[in-house]
Amino acid sequence: MGSCLSVTRASPVVGRCEESATPTTSSKHDYSMEMRLHRVAGRIFLNGSSQVASLFCKQGRKGVNQDAMLLWENFCNKEGTVFCGVFDGHGPHGHTVAKKVRDSFPLKLIAQWNLHPNNNAHTLVDTSNFAKLRESFLKACKVMDKELKLHHHIDCYCSGTTAVTLLKQGHDLVIANIGDSRAVLGTLDLQGSLIAVQLTTDLKPNLPREAERIRICKGRVFALENEPRIARVWLPNVDSPGLAMARAFGDFCLKDFGVISVPDVSYHRLTEEDQFVVLATDGVWDVLSNQEVVSIVASTPRYCAARILVESAVQAWRTKMPTSKADDCSVVCLFFDSDSHPKNNSEVTNECSRIGTRAVVEQSPLLEQKQQ
């Protein structure tokens, strides 16, 4: 539901996270880079799974699918290092911005890391160099936003994207968040029960620190009468564009009025109780609680966990918000112990379909009960 009100989405295209076969809004250089990236081993950006993760993206009912997602194993040529993220575009060119950030931001991060002369070839993430890595994330985001502003083939004036990204090496996690997508950890409490721990903060305009910055910069924050629960960012003297987040890549019409692309960067040291982390766009979190999400993921085979979660969110949209158009939903589930028995695509599709039907049916009474 994080969108600009002053613009409309383009006409619908494919219902999956798929790529165009020919360059359209990207320059030839960008297109060539994207094609090379898409052939990198261990890099997944479409629906699927690996030994450590499950990914799934589904178009909502608002128009073109503006979500993008990424899993990149052996990131930065470091064995066992994983980079993953979800990106939720908004505005007329949001789908293009989301894919651009998905493809370019990891390269910006690698470039920033390689600038450090004392970079350890084997250790990328740990408590001793978190400050340095945090600085790399901050600079990479700054470079990414500057590139979007100068990009002649992508109009980012009233379009942008969120980004919640995660870098894992061994037992160390670094999470960087811009916007209102979310990262949630599934972990065991002292009694051995699975609980959800939110690793990021939804950076919405009504958060006190965000609202204060926006108002200092002469931007305005208020909700419309017909949607009183959704605070939006507006220009000083015009009721436009109505951005439902306080931070984003792009959205340059609001960058002088308090909207920023500076990420919240945090560190988490994994323990034996930590089971998995879920990265998802707000289409999931708008209708499912953190606890519901981790329970769904834990109760399904990992190779189709993301798909079952997305299908459960779609069902929840029908149950909880029958008069609203379902948003795009994208999920990356990253598991902390590898699956030694991954299945092929046909097996995953068939079994996920069977499990998905059962899981959605089982979820419905719970959702209906909560709604009442």
From TrEMBL:
Species per Swiss-Prot/TrEMBL record: Abrus precatorius
Pfam family, one: PP2C
Superkingdom: Eukaryota
UniProt-recorded Gene Ontology molecular function terms: protein serine/threonine phosphatase activity
Domain PPM-type phosphatase: 52-336
Protein name per its UniProtKB record: Probable protein phosphatase 2C 33
SUPFAM superfamilies linked: PP2C-like
